[in-house]
Design brief:
Helix content: over 70%
Largest sheet: 2 strands, antiparallel
Number of helices: 11
Distance between the termini: 33 Å
Number of strands: 2
Order of helices and strands: HHHHHHHHHEEHH
Shape: elongated
């Protein structure tokens, strides 16, 4: 019965029927509330429901519920491991996945500090995928920085540096690092002066993805810093991985 509920909820999510998936997973929890996968799947359903919700209050509730669902999944998994009930060689990777999804729920609900903490916990549990978690951390701070706060830009660029250190071929990390750095540029006369490493970040992005989705923007940024490439660019937000 429980496995049937899980399968039905996942099918509903694949079809975009997230509210039905939430209802199904609540039924699953009534059957067995002691399995981490049940709570994590409810979290997925609530995050999906939030993505389609047009009422801001209901969207915020879906996201808050999702974060709590993932926390419950984390708590149950940790309890199972502490009691030796489950021998799961992938336990840390699963826990990191729960924290990554929790971070996404927090980020979309405007809880930036909580999101960053969640991504950092994911890194500690699963260093092999640190590039993804640090990228998501940087993306969260970039998207949240609507006031162009210099400290947040610095923190975001540092997160992208960590993503690059973990995965030097993660092209988007170079682009968004450069975007945060150029946001701290100053004008001296008619010349733009950006922090060290700005142009190099855009150049590295183009080296890795010469025809990538941000190629035109990267060329335009380089031009604005005094290079010879001419094009136009628009403002986009980084998507998390």
């Amino acid at each position: 019965m429980l496995n049937e509920k899980l399968a039905a909820a996942r099918a509903d999510m694949q079809a975009g029927n997230f509210d039905q998936a939430v209802a199904t997973m609540n039924e699953a929890i009534a059957i067995d509330a002691n399995r981490d996968v049940v709570w994590a799947t409810l979290g997925d359903a609530n995050r999906g429901a939030a993505s389609k919700q047009t009422d801001p209050a209901l969207k915020a509730k879906n996201l808050a519920d999702a974060a709590m669902d993932y926390q419950k999944a984390v708590d149950l998994k940790n309890q199972q491991m502490a009691e030796g009930k489950v021998k799961d060689p992938d336990a840390n990777k699963k826990l990191a996945g729960y924290y990554n999804n929790m971070g996404d729920a927090f980020a979309k609900n405007g809880k930036t500090d909580d999101a960053v903490n969640s991504y950092n916990k994911a890194v500690q549990l699963d260093p092999s995928d640190a590039g993804k978690y640090y990228f998501n951390e940087g993306a969260t701070m970039t998207n949240a920085n609507v006031k162009n706060d210099a400290k947040m830009r610095t923190a975001a660029s540092e997160a992208f540096d960590k993503a690059i250190a973990a995965d030097p071929n993660r092209a988007d990390a170079y682009y968004w690092k450069g975007t945060n750095l150029i946001g701290m540029a100053t004008l001296k006369g008619d010349k733009m002066e950006a922090p060290p490493g700005t142009a190099e970040a855009f150049q590295k992005y183009l080296e890795l993805q010469p025809t990538g989705p941000h190629a035109d923007e990267a060329k335009a940024m380089i031009t604005s810093l005094g290079a010879s490439v001419e094009t136009s660019f628009g403002k986009k937000k980084p998507g998390k991985k």
